[in-house]
Amino acid sequence: MRYNGFMKRLLILLGLLISTAAFSQQFGAQPSPAEMAKATAELKKFERDYKTAKAAYTKAPKNPKARDKFEEAATKYGHASMESPALPAKVKYRQALRIYREVLKINPNNPVAKKESDMMIAIYKQMGRPIPK
Q: Signal peptide position in this chain (predicted)?
């Protein structure tokens, strides 16, 4: 099948448009105000659960039930922090890493905290940036 110059240019333009749309949807698209409000509300809920569980764990660190609740709440809050569009990148990864470090202190084998903190540390190293303390 032979294409004339117009068809070739049209196909190239169509490919560029599709690529640009996919790129902006994945990397540059801003959430709508409703999506941002929902993300903020979800993040606040996870933060509230985290603070409640941390207070209970701090009062009774030997209580396995309090420890497990704190581990679960902190893991969920760390993941939500890392994924939330409500936080800027400079805040979300630093915050998630701090929370995951708390989880790993009480359970060094937590799969989510281990995997995601290792990933963030690798990204900081790859970018040549200092790893947040």
A: 1-24
